[in-house]
Amino acid sequence: MELMGRKWNNIKEKKAAKDKNTSRIYAKFGREIYVAAKQGEPDPEINQGLKVVLERAKTYNVPKAIVERAIEKAKGGAEENYDELRYEGFGPAGSMIIVDALTNNVNRTAAEVRAAFNKNGGNMGVNGSVSYMFEATAVIGVEGKTEEEVLELLMEADVDVRDILQEEEAVIVYAEPDQFHEVQEAFKAAGITDFSVAELTMLAQNDIALSGDAQVQFEKLIDALEDLEDVQQVHHNVE
């Protein structure tokens, strides 16, 4: 399946935008780490869900102190309960949006997400109205290697992925979500331990381009959604 060449730029831009508000990103990761640690053992070598979150946090330069605080909070038996929720909706000019949230107040989060859509040229959809146009995907990027070198090391590790693309300064591997660790372990066995990107995300099967007022309105909508405390990730189909 051809996804893909534009995706790495989207992820880079998203990371860059988020880096402007690091305290918000750190808080979101703190919550996500806590929830992952509570759902299993608070040890990433045993708890694969926690390991994924920690690998993602590393690419966002989340400080060790925040990671340790969230894990210690989970170990200490804190009883904050969060629900994992997914909302789907539409933005300007046919744009499609998926919103993933962690919340301790479902009614509050639903109201805030709906308000963000309504105030910024969008509208909420029902479950399944958008997600059928996206695919859950593991995205892992490394620098300092060619496509051929990455393909060779993955073949040696007997890891068959969806796609491998050179995108500007990085080689990006697109794989099934359950291959996230498998791909990373193949890289680590080859001495590669730093990743430009390490995400479990939802990638649109087809992207669209916006311009003018539609682009401005769309960006306002995405900003409004990402600013919500309970929202962890926002996925969309806009280039």
Automatic annotation (TrEMBL):
Keyword annotations from UniProtKB, A to Z: Cytoplasm, DNA-binding, Transcription, Transcription regulation
Domain spans labelled TACO1/YebC-like N-terminal: 6-77
The compartments listed are: Cytoplasm
Gene3D superfamilies in UniProt: 1.10.10.200, 3.30.70.980
Where is it found, in Gene Ontology cellular component terms? cytosol
Main subcellular location of this protein, as a coarse class: cytoplasm
The keyword Hydrolase is assigned to this record: no
| Molecular function as annotated in GO | DNA binding
Record's signal peptide: none
At the top level, the lineage of the source is Bacteria
Give the matching InterPro entries.
Integrase-like_N (IPR017856), TACO1_YebC-like_2nd/3rd_dom (IPR048300), TACO1_YebC_N (IPR049083), Transcrip_reg_TACO1-like (IPR002876), Transcrip_reg_TACO1-like_dom3 (IPR026564), Transcrip_reg_TACO1_YeeN (IPR026562), YebC-like (IPR029072)
Q: Which family does it belong to?
A: Belongs to the TACO1 family. YeeN subfamily.
Q: What is this protein called?
A: Probable transcriptional regulatory protein SAMN05421736_11275
Q: Ranges for the TACO1/YebC-like second and third domain? A: 82-238
The answer on whether this UniProt entry bears the keyword Chloroplast reads no
Please provide the Gene Ontology terms (biological process) for this protein. Answer: regulation of DNA-templated transcription
